[in-house]
Amino acid sequence: MTSDGEFRPHRVAVLALDGLLPFELGIPHRIFGRPRDASGRHLYEVVTCSARPPGRVETDADFAVHTTHGPEVLATADTVIVPASFESGPLYDEGRLTDELAAALALVRPGTRLASICTGVYVLAAAGRLDGRRATTHWADAERFQQMFPRVRVDADVLFIDDGDVLTSAGVAAGIDLCLHMVRRDFGTAAANDVARRTVVPPHRDGGQAQYIHRPVPDPQLATTTTARAWALGRLHEPVQLRDMAAQESMSVRTFTRRFREETGISPGQWLTQQRIERARQLLESTGLSMDQVARDAGFGTAQSMRRHLQTALGVTPTAYRRTFRAGGGGERSGAGGAAR
């Protein structure tokens, strides 16, 4: 919604660079191309552009893509996304922008949300947009990236990082997680869940990249923690003890904790908190329950505890979250600008 009340979808510009990975290029179009408001209007407009005049952009596959938009699109974007690419040159060999890319990025308006998928993070770092910030990239590239950009605080254990106006994701499919997160941030959990269902992907993946880093394959005869997680999800409103989760798998607490972290990348306590936050978000968006009742149903016990956890995880209070997302409250407001506040 523009300042004069006219509807305008949130414009996402996808910057295609030589050597791009076609899969990553398609992620923003798939995820942001789906959400609609109650009137059937698209909430996002996705436009692909290059850093030079329209034309051929090489991929890492046996085909190229043709962009019909040049860098001027960046000046009109509410969000700019840089997918992964593996073209050698000053950016990836020396950590600096080419004159062409620097000129294109200079067109981006102040306050525009920036995001990268996988090695697209090199572009944001070379532009100085990640100095002093946390960022992530593919776990296999994290060490090299950190050496090239020592002022960036690299976290290779997560699927994505939301640092307000700059977001970064890990490799390949983590771009889906990032884009779904942005839909959730802009228009709420229900919108993101609908996109996830249509895309046939989970709306939220547990853990981080740690679960994908190569390790010796566990003995298939050994039990996993799947049963315990399903058991806990059905009891989020109750106190869930670690020993009770371990008992579901007939494991000692020590063995269960180790196996849980191997499978999800996080501890059982962190996982429980994540699930309770998601439950609280759903209740705040879809019901008129009091804050005390939402807190009890989500397993936080008290409204004060829920408030503390949501502020830590989301940066907003439960009241502010409900005001933004209840019944689509944040939808059209965030369509013209950045994320809903």
Write a structural description.
The chain is an alpha/beta fold and 341 residues long. Helices cover 41% and strands 12% of the residues. The chain is built from 15 helices and ten strands. Strand 7, helix 5 and strand 8 form a beta-alpha-beta unit. Helix 6 packs antiparallel against helix 7 and helix 11 packs across helix 14. The longest helix is centred in the last third of the chain and has 19 residues. The chain is globular. The two termini are 14 Å apart.
Structural class determined from secondary elements: alpha/beta
Largest sheet, strands/sense/barrel: 6 strands, mixed
Overall pLDDT score: 87
Provide the helix percentage.
40-55%
SSE run = EHEEEEHHEHEHEEEHHHHHHHHHH
Order of strands in the sheet with most strands: 2-1-5-6-10-9
Low-pLDDT regions: 213-222, 328-341
Shape designation? globular
Rg calc: 21 Å
- Terminal-residue CA separation: 14 Å
Strand residues, percent: 5-15%
Number-wise, the strands total 10
Task: Spell out the blueprint of helices and strands.
Blueprint: E1 10-16, H1 22-32, E2 44-50, E3 55-58, E4 64-67, E5 79-82, H2 90-94, H3 99-105, E6 113-116, H4 121-126, E7 134-135, H5 142-148, E8 153-154, E9 160-162, E10 166-169, H6 174-187, H7 189-199, H8 226-233, H9 242-248, H10 253-264, H11 268-286, H12 291-298, H13 303-314, H14 318-325, H15 331-335
Parallel strand pairs: 1-2, 1-5, 5-6, 6-10, 7-8
Antiparallel strand pairs: 3-4, 9-10
Produce a short descriptive summary.
The protein contains 15 helices and ten strands. It is α/β, with parallel strands linked by helices.
